Structures are given as C-alpha cells and as structure tokens.
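QA checklist item 7 of 12: single-chain prediction sanity check.
[x] sequence parsed
[x] length recorded as 81
[x] structure emitted
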Amino acid sequence: MKSIGRKFTWSKCYGQRYNYQTREMEDISFDVLGNYTEKRATNYARKFFKDSTIIIYYVELEQHYHKMSAEKFLQESERVY
C-alpha cells in the first residue's frame, strides 16, 4: 500500500508586549505553522495582532511527520486541476 507523508514544523513563539492600561510589559505566546525565527515571528505577530509593541524573544521548533494512505488522501483531498 502506498502512502503519502510530510513533515510539519510548528513554531512556539514567546515574547512580550506593552499593555497601555497597566503601563507594564505582559507575556504573550502563540503557535504558528512553519519554521519561524525570532525576527520573522515578531513581524508576523505585529501584523496578526495589530500591535507594534510585540517583541518575540524565543521560538521553540517542534517537528512531526504525518502520513496517510494514498487511497485515503485521494478520497479526502481537493482536486485543483
């Protein structure tokens, strides 16, 4: 039986942002699919959360390999051309 597999990388991002109400820095963390550096994660977070005060100081990468049978893939996938 043939199978289709792929490795996925999740970036667990940790940083801080400024809270204007308390006038203090607060922790922020989120997961994003892909291989992100601290700089790239900072740019992503600032755009996604619409907050220019966010700074990501640590990114932890987690990789997993997923596979499924070719028959199941063909049944569940979308034909694009």
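[x] summary fact logged: The mean pLDDT is 96.
[ ] second reviewer sign-off
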